[in-house]
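The protein record reproduced below.
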Amino acid sequence: MGLLLTGPVTPGRPARLVRMPARAMSALLTAVEARRGHLFPWTPVFLSLGIGLYFTRATEPPVWALWAFAGAAAVLALAARRLPELWAPVLIALALVAGGAALAGARAHMVAAPKLDHRVYGALEGRVLVLDRSSSDAPRITLDRVWIERVPPNETPRRLRVALHGAGGVTAPPPGARIAMMAHLSPPSAPAEPGGFDFRRHAWFKQIGAVGYANSPAVTLSPPEGGATLLVHRMRMALSEALRARIPGDQGAFAAAILTGDRSAMSRDTIQALRDSNLAHLLAISGLHMGLLTGVIFAALRFALALWPRLALRLPVKKIAAAGALAVGAVYLALSGGNVATERAFIMVAAVLGAVMADRRALTLRAVALAALIVLVLTPESLTQAGFQMSFAATTALIAVFAALRDRPEGGWRPPRWAQGVLAVVISSAVAGAATAPFGAAHFNQVSQFGLLANLASVPLMGLLVMPAAVAAACLAPFGLAGLGLEPMRWGIAWILWVAERVAALDGAVWPVPAPGPAVLPLIALGALWVMLWTGRARALGLLPILAAFALWSAAQRPALLIAESGGLMGAMGPEGRALSKPSGEGFVALSWLENDGDRADQATAFARPGLTGARGEQEAMVAGQRVTLITGRGWAERIAPACARGWVVVPQYLDDPPAGCRIFERAALARTGALALFPGADGPRLVTARALAGARLWAQ
């Protein structure tokens, strides 16, 4: 039953929830079920259109608009039951679009929580929820039940995330412990550039209202508390430490990552090699790991039960094996931390094993659609995440391709039996790689040129040795014989890491890609879904939006000049790429700019490039005939007036009385606009602000 809201939502005050009429929701589900034969695989597509409609708005829809969407969905669903077969699917599709918009809006209001609106340095207390690592490779903790010095309770974030530097990073506190520390806190960061990734939205749906860092050690106020969630998390950490103790180095860290989701011990060089060779997906506990594990358990249980003829003849052995595999998958979900990618994988595996227990065909587009629907209904925001897009793109493409191969006319060429397994691995790797490549390139700004080679050399070993050995180690552990499984597992992991290093070291292993415009990925997704889900010759029409998307991508224009929200960093596009105004400092923003340019240079290299003129402390750039000067360092106040006479001025300071007649971007003005981007225009530079593109949304207030 769906949930909607009434009344305004403000941080710190929970929204009042009201339930949609049961009859309307029942009508929608009944209408879809009645015509599921030809419409059901399309239901997550139409639901996604509505969710995307909500997230792409420039302003937050009022609550009455969410009610209107929900009401429209109910009316359309009821009407679909009474109209002829020809028109009913159209109304169901429109109902799903309207329902998706209402669902996403309701979810955004339901997770509303306070967040900081200013920087804070002081004492804080909280309970440790999660341990992981930051982008700078420092230990990081997520806290709840938070108290912050000089922050009123009604303005205190429900959760916050702190990176532990210095002495505080040596002994990270255990999950469940209540700790105290001195920390620097700030609101979740806005986009590094207009149209860039908005961490505020990501943090909003995780109810993280502040982020920061601590340089001093954390003090434990109370030992770890009980509770099923924290108990499971401590079990994960204990298992991770045990694996690293038995398998040293990056091999043990890799084993911990694929079994518990703990990547904290992985070295940055190894992670980068896995990314550059397109093998980083092996670290994420997703469909591959869940499928391999449950597949091994299913086969082992079915084989073991078949050894007893009486049992095999009297009981549904296949269904019992599927139920056992599903139970093991649920345990794996809990031990792996239950992140979004693992949850998606478990839902998909549950749909497949459920089909086996119901005597239905397991791997169908309907099973994929069901899994996608469940994920979208529970977490509509996952539609905007790379994990959702890539996992369902790969799964849908694999099922569509293998279904087409299975249903091809008789009499055609078929490979010999001995080659079918090898050919299946090649086809699956190529199809999954091709399906996920556009999404990976758009989100991570790179394409691995030799990813197919690396996957062909690694993925089969993952299924034939690493995961079966992990299962064997788990079964033998109670008898003290886990090493019999861990040693073969180590051999397989050593090979995978060796392949990653060798492939990543090849010339041209990585092809950097600039960030696409906002319409590119939706066009690719809709076109590809049309090709895979439609039947008949009309499916070729899906190639048109795909071609249009790649044309838009190739014509994407990067800003001629970027200015950070702090005002302390400026980047101008020069003949050798983007030139940065300083060699260090604000590294996250600098790296984001370069990655979005499709540039693999580091900040120091970008600083040495031509593109900015003038001495350090008074650097200048020209955009469409307009001079922009960044003023920093000592004596900045005296240098503003002469710079104003030459053009626009950027100052990373607060000015109480800015000079009249000067276009000046000082700290307070930049806080209102966010990061700036300048594009060349016919009548001078065209200025775009991050605030304008992010819009007036709940998470951007």
